[in-house]
Amino acid sequence: MKILVTGAAGFIGFHVSQILLKKGYDVIGLDNINNYYDVELKFSRLNELGISKEHANSFNRLCESQSLKRFKFVRMNLENREELPKLFETENIDIVCNLAAQAGVRYSLENPESYVDSNLVGFLNILECCRNFNIKHLVYASSSSVYGLNKKIPFSTTDNVDNPISLYAATKKSNELMAHTYSHLFKFPTTGLRFFTVYGPWGRPDMAMFLFTDAITKNKPIKVFNYGKMERDFTYIDDIVEGIVRIIEKDTTKRVENKELYKIYNIGNNNSVKLLDFITEIEKNLGKEAQKDMLPIQPGDVERTWANVDDLIKDYDYSPNTSIEDGVSQFIDWFKMYYNVN
Which parts of the chain are coiled coil (predicted)? Predict the structure, then answer.
């Protein structure tokens, strides 16, 4: 089976590609390697997959991994209406795992156009390719941000999500609506995953885990928004990847027969952790106390997230089991190694 993983140079896409390759699948990785955050980290992830920076730099050219059989990579924009269908036509893809998107709640206030290009136009192009090239299953990234100011805890997929409070959240809600339309009209299965605060080795530099660790090691103050009165369903990357791969591997024949083509799931740790407790765990692993700059809540932020993952447990036997203690420890170990921090 051949699987296209978009966002393969990104945090989650990199890890998903690794596991799929270990399981023996053919994987095509796609990423535009934009400069939203440090591109060298993206190139380093690709290097782990056997793709050199030299080969990754050329747009729209499919290159093979130097060290991992069955992996190919192409640098491409999803919004490229001409090149994306060519990739589908030549590579006989079976399943698409669309993890590429312009990420970040706060950045969507500064650069809204990039969210329209990548998350809306790009996603439409993915849907069109799935429709025209008989893709068996589209698994795609949504986000917990679609819940907006939802007060009901934990968040459930049956909750109303008509009130997003950031453009990023609005694009992710739009993706779900677009997927529903294509599943209904063209009869192929789509599965949307609402991710909840993913962290771990090779994580994104714009996320709290990374920002806090980097600042503490450099003896700089950390920005603690809403004066620390925040809670998040922090989910370790291995638990996220396990859920994604189980969905990719499960046969969708019964879903098609039962006309259950469109599915949405929360994917998280099924728990809510106080931000200040999370910071304490980082301090413990670094052996240093953080200088805390207590600030009001940021536009687009919510005070609390918590995923109800009962549906994912029932349908895929999903079992997140990485504790905050173990997850933070593994991230800190990677951070020290990657950045040569003593």
Answer: none
